[in-house]
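Field: COMPLEX_INPUT
Field: COMPONENT_COUNT = two
Field: RESIDUE_TOTAL = 603
Field: MODE = joint
Values follow.
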Amino acid sequence: MLHQHLIVAMPIEAKALIPFFRLKKLTHAPAFEVYRRDNLWLTISGIGKVASAAAVAYTHMLAGHNSFSSWLNIGIAGHGHVELGDLFAAHKITDADTGHSHYPSLTFTLPCQTEEVFTVPKPVIDYPVHGLFEMEASGFYYSATRFTSNELVQCLKVVSDTHHHPIESITPAWIEQNIKNHLESIEHVLQHQKVLLEELEVAHHVPNAFEAIAQKWRFSQQQKTQLQQLLRRWHLIWGDTTSAESAISGCRNSRECLQALSDTINKQPTALD
Amino acid sequence: MIDTIYIEAALEDHPRVTGILKRYPNARRITCERYGEVFNPKAQNFRLQKKKPALILAQKHKGFVLPAPDGYGIGGAHNYYFSHMLNCLYDCRYCFLQGMYRSANYILFVNYEDFDQAIRLTASQHPGQSIHFFSGYDCDSLAFENTSGFAAHILPLFRERPHTLLELRTKSTQISTLLETEAIDNVVVAYSLNPDNVAKSLEHGAPGLSARIRAMLKLAESGWKIGLRFDPLIYQSHYQTLYRELFKQVFSVLPERSIHSVSTGPFRLPDGFFKKLIRLYPDEKLFAGPLSSDNGMTSYDTALEEEMIAFCKAQILNYIPEEKFFRCTL
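Field: COMPLEX_OUTPUT
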C-alpha cells in the first residue's frame, strides 16, 4: 500500500492544507500532531531540522513503515532577490551547519521555479547568498531519504520574507493565505509523486496465489521472498498464477514447492511480445 | 530533453561547459562540488530517474584508459576502453549499467584532453603491436555526440595512429559527425543489433532496427568500416527464425567489404547486477526467462547459450569469412 506524506513545521501552515485535503486528526499519535485521509498524511513537526527529521521518522513508523512512500515538505522561507509569495521547489538543499548538500531528483515537471535551499539554525535576515533560507529542509530530506528514494522526496517553499518585507512583518494570516495560493501546485506535486509510487506498486504487486500457497507449508522469510519472485515470473509468463497450483500439487514441503515452480518456469521459453 | 544540468563548481568557466550550456538555455543549472554528491547517494531509484535524467558536467581525475575485461575484443593483442560518459540515452532493459550505477543521470567528463593524453601514452606503450580501444562501454558512443562532440574531438588522434584501432559502439543514428569526416581506416563504427521484436520490447528509446541499418549503410557508403555486434543474444522459443531473419536483413544491404568484424555474445550479468535489475523491474518479461546463476554470473544455462551461439555463428558464416567473426565471452 502506498502512502503520501506532507510535513509542515507550523500549525498555521497546516491550517491551509487540512481542509483542502479533508484530513482528520489522529487521536493515537501523541508525539506529533498527525492528520490523515486514506493514504495522505500530514504531520506538524515543529520548527527546526531535528524536529522535521523526527517527524518524518515518527510518521513513517506510524504509517506502517511502508516501502512505497512519498514525502513533501511545505513551508515558508526567506530570499533576498525574489518576489514575496512566490513558490519554489528545492533543487539543492544545503545544511548551513555542516555544509553538506543534498540534491532532490527532479523527475517530473514541476509547477514552479526551483532554487537552492539553505537550512539554517536561526532565522536569517540579511540573505547573504542567492537562495532560500529556512530551518527544516535538510533534516526533512535526510530522514525521508532513509525510507524512500530521492525522486519521491520534494520540498516546496513559499517566500515569506525578503529585503523589502522583513521577517518581523510575517503574520499567521499571511502564511495561511499564501500557502492557500499554491494549493494547486502542491496538489500537482502530490499527483506526480503518486504516479511514480503507483508504477512501483504495480511492478512489485504480489500475485494472488501467494497467500494461499504460503499457508500450505512452513516457509522461511527468505523462502517467502523466493516464492513471491517465482510467482511474479509465473504471472509474467502465463498471465496469471492459477495454473501454479497444479504445478505444486504433488509437493510435500516448501522446498519442493519452490523447486517445482522454478523447474516449470525454467522449461518455459519466454515470449517478449 | 534535458531539464537539469549539474555542473562541478571548478568547471563553471570551462569552455566546453559554456558551449554545452548554450545548447540547453532553458535547463536549470545547479552547481555541485563533485559529481559524486549527485550521482552516488544510496537513496536513488534508477527506474524512476530514467524518466527524466539530468546531465552532470564533471571532470574525471583518473582511470582515463583502462584494460578491457578478458573476453572482450575483436582480435587485438591489447584491448583497452575509455568512457567519456557514464550512462546512456537509451534504456535497454538488458543493460548492465542499470545494475552498476545507482543513478540514471548522465555524466559527461569534459576534460577530453586528459583522455587524449592517456590514449597517446597507452598507444606508445605497445609499439608495433595491434592495440584496440573501445569507446561505448559505459555509454553509447554517438547518441550524445551532437552535444558532447567527443567523437569529433577524438577521431584525429586515431587518424594519426594507424597501428591502433578505435571501436565506436552505438545504436545511434546521430552520424553527422562521421559523415562530415573523411573515413578513417582504423576506426570501426560498431552497431549493436537484435531482432526487431527484441529492439521494440527491450531497447526503449533506441532507434529501431531499420533506422540503424539505414545509418550503417550511409556510413558504409562514406567509406567507414562497420562492426556488427549481435550482442546480447536474447532467447525466445522462435529465436532461430528471428535471428536468421535479422542476419538476412543486415547482410543483404551491407556490402561485405564494409564489414570490419562481427561478434556475438550471450546475455550475461554479474549476479549482483541481476538481483538489482529484478528489484527495479520485477515486471520485466526478460527476467522471467530461463536464467540461472553460475560462478557469480546470471545467464541462460550453458547448453542453451552454446546452442544459440552455435546457431548464430553458423548463420553469420553464410555471409562473412570466419576471420571476421568473434565471440564475446565476457
